[in-house]
């Protein structure tokens, strides 16, 4: 019957990188979301919190002409709008004149999302900090100490706030890749008092299509080579969910009893941005046939299970035009490739119709 080998991979996902550019944890801005892994569906509401050390508002505190009482300084900080923005950028490469660069390609970046919301700062910040009207001094960071008027009170060490952001529908799914193509989403906090941009990564996916009995049908395909070897493969249905196994049935007829070395089945995630393509093998199985000890078979049947990764796995995304200022096409689907390797002959390459990965029930 042949020996089988297997191998699997999971799509890359970002780590929750640090949110600030400072080397001291006491000076870092913290952005936290209600989903710890940063995975969200398009169309959902994203809720989070921010913590901003007072260090970043030193433009108010270091102003020697600022003689306002402490509580008025705090009110001024709170009254300034602080904005969280969901930013999505798609990057792809395209062929150009070979003289343009070393490999004849140019990189393009297209913005696909800019969705903003205001941070609602905690109005109790001043109440929590004003405890002793007679205190004369307070320290704002590790290097600067401010001496306030004896009539003022200490400021809080951290300004805290919450935000709620509606993720737009129909955004292309995330694709984290160290080279084009890629689709990267980040939550960004911008402060007028700082030149740094504070951000955390977000993973987005659609929920996918809703399965329906009339479209959740068997998928199959077949091919015949010049030596009359006929290869056939099929799946029992179209729709699958992350973490589900995909049974693949295979068979061939070999009337001339040609020598067959192996049959390989691979599950591929296929992402296209404009004309740039990305492929990732998620799982694979291989049958190897010992042609030195086995007689060629006229008929062969086999079945294997391919494993879809669990969340965060992006749902299938049909070909759509996206972009805020420039429109490009994006598409994400999942395909199963079968290859029959014949000794000294004509290999067969077979592709099944795309399966549909969905979170819908």
Describe this structure in words.
The chain is mainly beta and 361 residues long. It folds into two domains: 156 residues, Immunoglobulin-like (Sandwich); 181 residues, Immunoglobulin-like, CATH 2.60.40.640. The chain has three helices and 23 strands. The strands form six sheets. Strands 1, 17, 18, 20, 21 and 22 form a six-stranded antiparallel sheet that branches. Strands 3-12-11-5-6 form a five-stranded mixed sheet, with no helix packed on it. About 10% of the residues have low confidence. This is Arrestin C-terminal-like domain-containing protein. InterPro entries: Arrestin-like_C (IPR014752), Arrestin_C-like (IPR011022), Arrestin_domain-protein (IPR050357), Ig_E-set (IPR014756).
Layout: helices, strands, pairs:
Layout: E1 3-8, E2 30-33, E3 39-41, E4 45-53, H1 58-61, H2 70-79, E5 83-95, E6 105-118, E7 120-121, H3 125-129, E8 137-139, E9 145-147, E10 158-166, E11 182-190, E12 197-205, E13 219-224, E14 230-235, E15 239-240, E16 245-253, E17 260-273, E18 276-288, E19 299-307, E20 317-322, E21 328-342, E22 348-351, E23 356-357
Parallel strand pairs: 3-12, 15-23
Antiparallel strand pairs: 1-18, 2-4, 4-10, 5-6, 5-11, 7-10, 8-9, 11-12, 13-14, 14-16, 16-19, 17-18, 17-21, 20-21, 21-22
Region (Disordered): 1-27
InterPro entries: Arrestin-like_C, Arrestin_C-like, Arrestin_domain-protein, Ig_E-set
Organism: Adineta steineri
Features:
361 residues, Immunoglobulin-like, mainly beta, Arrestin-like_C, five-stranded mixed sheet, 5% helix, 2 domains, single chain, Arrestin C-terminal-like domain-containing protein, Arrestin_C-like, six-stranded antiparallel sheet, Arrestin_domain-protein
